[in-house]
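Input (Endonuclease V):
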Amino acid sequence: MEDLDDLKTSWKLAQLSLKERVLPVDTEPWQAEDVPRSPWKRSTASSEERHFAIHNIMDDAVPLSSLGLVAGVDISFDCTNTNKASVALVVVQLPGLEPAYKSCRPVTMCQPYVPGFLAFREVDFIVESVNILRGSHPELYPQVVLVDGNGILHPERLGMASHLGVLLDLPCVGVGKNLYCTDGLLRDDRHKLQITAMRDRGDFFFLYGADTEEVLGAALKSTENSTKPVYVSVGHRCTLRTALRVVNACSKFRVPEPIRLADIYSREYLRDSGNVA
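Output:
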């Protein structure tokens, strides 16, 4: 294996190249359905008002009627060997969110875990699973992939969802269970106050970079009873508005159904093999 410093240098160069290919715009017909302009984007608001404002994605009430197949991916690790894992891919059918396809297979990591470079350790296995699906069941090839991780909500604006999206050339959305603290984002009292201010399903607030004022993602209350948000970010070939609409449409529980099922299946696979995640 390469020296770690050399490896990080090569990965950094690859990140810069991949980042140039990320498209934070809607590119698909199903994304272009007539969406009414909701009041959550007001240029006249002060910086303080924008940072504290709570919006609701349900204001975009037009259903995603042309969106039928959404995939979720997850990797669970062997508790006795962190290089051994299972990678799960699930495709659900909208609007009912019934599973239309699932696969789970064992993999062995061949790259080290390095913070900020997680995709280089895991992404090739996910790409392979998606390509297996495309070859065996092309009629179930997803229109968008939800990733248990982040997209542009990342120090280099290239988290797993963006990295995967570019490699697959598919719309991808990052859905984090915890806030990625980068560019001044903190799990502080202010952040907790914003979370408690979200009352209804579909409520969300933007995540602004402290230094850049860039919108890196949004914290979304995905169900009525959820007390913790999920953190949604653009991966590739979608806007944040579209990303939020997709996650909201796919949520029965806090974590959207494609990812939730992929997590369950990957853990079950390890349990069945005697190595609980």
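The chain has a mean pLDDT of 91.
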